[in-house]
Amino acid sequence: MSAANVRLQLQFDLELAVPASVAALDHARLCQKLAELLGPTVIQGLPVIAGKQLAKAEVRVVKHHHRLDAQARAVARIEPARIVEAAPHLTDAEVATLAARAAARLPAAEADQAGYLRSQALALVNEYRLVGCRVDALLSNGKPTQIEGKLNLTNGHIFLDSSHRQTRLQQAQGPLRVAVGETDVVLAAECSGHTLTGPVLDVAVKQLVPHRAALLARWQAG
Q1: Whole-Å CA distances, 55 to 50, 51, 92
Q2: Which residues are within 8 A (CB) of 44 and not within 5 positions of it... i.e. 6 or more apart?
Q3: What is the rounded CA–CA span in Å between residue 216 and residue 93?
């Protein structure tokens, strides 16, 4: 078998995650860069390996050539405001990090994007970011009271001191006024019941968004 009488074509599509500097190259330079990275180990190695396997059936590779092509995909850009809306507890630097990290897998359906960004934000930063606060409420006997606590910017939960384990609030009294210490920020909390640690108080995360700058500044100040 001195002449080739069969043409064999093998094709593999490799999905690559490359540095931004590589993705920004034009088509010709991108292909050149990837060819250099692959080098003879891959480009010359595949025909050699294939030849050894085919030789088991007395098939000989007469000649070979290769074709390399690559197309950079446009990655969806995530506006920082969208991340802030889903996760106001993140700093500007963390928002930028998440925008770059989450863009590649952002769901196509807009209805799914907010939940995705929220989950990715919590995967990035899920620590307690606490600021002091004061909650105005009515006790179960109808008397007004002020409860000192700490608002967690990460999820809106208000942590109360152990002294409030026996505190019982009046049911169905509506949103409770929450003032964040050393700021002008006023929020509304809901009481979802009582546990062994006292009243369960939470502020909706979306309420934190308009006050993000002041809340983060207070948290960073300690």
Answers
A1: 8, 6, 60
A2: none
A3: 12
Verdict on whether the full-model pTM lies above 0.90 = no
Three-class secondary structure of residue 218 per DSSP: helix
- What contacts 70, CB < 8 A, 6 or more positions away? 16, 27, 30, 31, 34
Computed over every residue of the chain, the mean pLDDT equals: 92
CA 220/CA 105 separation, integer angstroms:
31
3-state secondary structure of 209: helix
Q: What is the mean predicted confidence (pLDDT) over 119-136?
A: 97
Helix (H, G, I), strand (E, B) or coil at 149: strand
As to burial, measured by CB atoms within 10 angstroms (0-12 exposed, 13-18 middle, 19+ buried), residue 99 is middle
Phi, psi of 54 (to 5 degrees): -70, -30
Taking the chain, what is the end-to-end CA distance rounded to the nearest angstrom?
81
Tokens of 150: 């700490």
Q: Quick check: 134 and 178 in contact, CB under 8 A? A: yes
- The pLDDT, as a whole number, for residue 64 is 87
CA distances from 123 to 46, 55, 75, 101, 118 (A): 40, 51, 21, 11, 9
- Amino acid making up residue 196: L
Q: Can you tell me which residue has the tokens 């809106």? A: 156
Got the DSSP string for 59-128? Answer: -------------PPPPPPPPHHHHHHH-TTS-HHHHHHHHHHHGGG--SSHHHHHHHHHHHHHHH--S-
Q: And the tokens for 196?
A: 């062994």
